[in-house]
Design a protein that fits this description.
By secondary structure, this protein is an alpha+beta fold. It has helices at 5-26, 89-114, 119-122, 125-143; strands spanning 37-41, 50-58, 61-66, 69-74, 80-88, 145-153.
Length: 157
């Protein structure tokens, strides 16, 4: 079976017309609601993520309020935009349980260092499990943990 030159031409034209649409879609930022809580990664402005509320959102720029400060970031300055999905008590409880275990174990291990009894070092994880995990679980559930969803990421080059 041979492929006709007309079919090849048609497929080439379709691909050529579709590629600018894909490129244009990647070059614009998503529409964000005013007041939405966002976390952006802008390597040119800060080595850390910037968290704030949306003041203005256009296809090529985002304005963010951080307390009394405001900043306008162009699309070219951004690497990623995450939108807050709110607090999750379950996620906070799991995170708190992990930290509770680590803190409980470390606190007991520090007591073991002060003591000359080697059995303290062997038993260090037990108080972390018995006391740290439940206390961390409860604290994490009370405070919750913010959940984020990535809405836009700079296309890899």
């Amino acid at each position: 079976m041979t492929i006709s030159p007309r079919l090849i031409l048609l497929l080439t034209l379709c691909a050529a017309m579709a590629s600018p649409c894909v490129i244009a879609a990647q070059d614009t930022l998503p529409r964000l609601e005013d007041g939405a809580r966002v976390r952006v990664l802008a390597p040119e402005n800060s080595s850390r993520e910037i968290t704030g509320n949306v003041l203005l959102s256009t296809p090529h720029m985002i304005g963010i309020a951080r307390g009394a400060d405001t900043m306008n970031l162009a699309r070219s300055q951004l690497a990623r935009i995450d939108v807050s999905m709110g607090l999750s008590r379950w996620s906070g409880a799991k995170h708190g349980a992990k930290w509770g275990f680590l803190i409980g174990t470390a606190a007991y291990a520090m007591g073991a260092v002060a003591s000359d009894d080697p059995s303290f070092a062997i038993l260090a994880p037990i108080p972390g499990l018995i006391f740290g995990v439940p206390l961390g679980f409860i604290a994490g559930a009370v405070w919750g943990r913010e959940q984020w969803q990535t809405r836009w990421a700079q296309p890899s080059r």
